[in-house]
């Protein structure tokens, strides 16, 4: 296959990439991407966002992902969470080959096993922070337990006093922390985050990351966090960089 410097790919060349994909690692909590391509078509032109990106993250490992704007980070995160399909390549996350799941299967898997904190937010505006977290927790526990779980999560992120406030009454940083609590409410095996402390001051960001790292170590939580903050990246077990559509060690 040949890819031009402009990112164009000739028609029909993607089929050869989908053949012979390796079986992947099906252990719970593992994140595996092998030779992942993502191509966006706009009229007659095609742009390659990912050019054979590969990574393996072990269960319970915390990995940071850095890279300049336009390097393909958002495309890779969407593929790893099942929100977008790769154009070619093999993706196995938490023991599931994502291309083998339909939309309902992907939604159920995310609800039960995955936590996601993306920049667009994940709160229901008219619910309180506690109600937002309890709503997710109630999928696996009773109403009283889910409320208690929500209060504990919010308190661990410094939002104990703001738990009863609606999302519209919270500051940007408080919304972000409440969103992290929502992502943790289902006790996920894997947590994906995109600049999850971007709205926080350095002191609060440090406290939030301390809480996340503690949870990661205690519960064997696998974390992949996209960040431009070197202080956050340095907390990771490993640092990766996505550049030119490829993943490399920092």
> Whole-Å distance between the termini?
28 Å
- What is the CA-based Rg, rounded? 19 Å
Low-confidence stretches: 1-24
* Coarse morphology: globular
Structural class, please? alpha/beta
Q: Strand arrangement, largest sheet?
A: 6-7-8-3-9-10
Topology, number of strands: 10
How large is the share of residues in beta strands?
Answer: 15-25%
Number of helices: 7
Can you give a write-up of this model?
This protein is α/β, with parallel strands linked by helices. The protein has 7 helices and 10 strands. It has helices at residues 73-80, 103-113, 129-137, 143-156, 172-184, 202-219, 230-233, and strands at 31-42, 45-57, 62-66, 88-93, 96-97, 114-117, 190-194, 222-226, 238-243, 246-249. α3 (129-137) runs parallel beside α5 (172-184). The protein is globular and about 50 Å long.
Descriptors:
single chain, 250 residues, alpha/beta, disordered N terminus
Task: Describe the SSE topology.
Blueprint: E1 31-42, E2 45-57, E3 62-66, H1 73-80, E4 88-93, E5 96-97, H2 103-113, E6 114-117, H3 129-137, H4 143-156, H5 172-184, E7 190-194, H6 202-219, E8 222-226, H7 230-233, E9 238-243, E10 246-249
Parallel strand pairs: 3-8, 3-9, 6-7, 7-8
Antiparallel strand pairs: 1-2, 1-4, 4-5, 9-10
Overview in brief:
With 250 residues, this protein is an alpha/beta fold. It is built from 7 helices and 10 strands.
